[in-house]
Amino acid sequence: MIDKFLKAKHWQLFTLMFGIPILFQIVMMGTMFSNMNSETNPDPTKMFNMFKFFPIIMIIYMGIFFGWFWSIAIGLQKRVPENVTMKTKKFKIFFFIPLVYILCISLFIGGMFSGIMQNGTEPSGGFGVGIVGIILPLHLLSMFGVFYSLYFVAKTFKTVELQKEVSFGEFAGEFFMLWFYFIGIWIIQPKINKMAGNENTTANKELS
What we know:
- This protein is 82% helix and 0% strand.
- The protein is mostly helical.
- It has one domain (2-202).
């Protein structure tokens, strides 16, 4: 699976990561407007019905997004110079924190909307305050995990590219391109393709 991400074309990853959520929003908005225009008294439960698919869409999207990050950070480790030490264990810990958090929050949101549709009642104010009190610190921890993953992935990429120990100033550009992936993927992924291609070429030479 790692090799598939490393060898995937930039337009393929862009379509999967950016196209899926956009398509979902278009379908959801189209369904909502169709429901509002076709009935005198539109049923809100029909509009909320689309949110049942929210966890599925988010799981697919995050699987592709984080799978790309994982493939760069872990898949390129064999290309890192021997004299450079990368803290992969620390990366793995902070990598899975936002992944688990987003999975849980997606399932929670999907379940909440499902409950609203079945029971026809909204959550109480006390329940909302309690949920915010729990989610807020987890959300901040998740954000830190995402930024650390961005940092580690960008550092790994630049270390492999330059074949030396790098400082943040040397991979700051890659950090922001990964953060704004819908732009950066067009620049970074072709270079990753070359790195993966060079690895296959070297392996073939060694076998021959």
